[in-house]
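Example record

One chain of 172 residues, shown exactly as stored in the release files.
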Amino acid sequence: MNWNDERVEMLRKLWGEGLSASQIAAHLGGVSRNAVIGKVHRLKLSSRGRAAAAPARPKKVAKPPVAAPKPGVRTTVTRSMPASIGATALQVQFDTDYAPQISMRAQPENLVVPISRRLRLVELTERTCKWPNGDPLSEDFSFCGNDPAETGPYCKYHSKLAFQPASDRRRR
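Predicted structure tokens for this chain:
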């Protein structure tokens, strides 16, 4: 299909009236929607009139995804209603107030928490527990430093925290 002067003028007219590329292609015949779009870009036709085709549909407001709560932790989430802000469209604002409430599960009575030796990074060896204590960016950051278990970088207590048996993971 060749774009002659008559077809180009018809394209300009229909584009200015606000017809879609599919409607223009159907009106011209023998040309695809993509060909119309390509010609419009080559002609640099940017200004369009408004089409009076279909009435505007109300926009659907997407519901935000809600993360699943962790077992044993209760969270409180409050959601505010959409509010009009100046000349902008309606915006949904969310106020999230997390108040974790950890359930007290039965702790083993023979649980012994070792006292940390509070070693610095340069003081660690192959025979010290490398469990971090505190915030790494703070000055009082340290490592456990107790004797490690036979295998692994942690002492017996921290190994139980770090590694879960496979059967426990499958149950969850």
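Notes: The longest helix spans residues 5-16.
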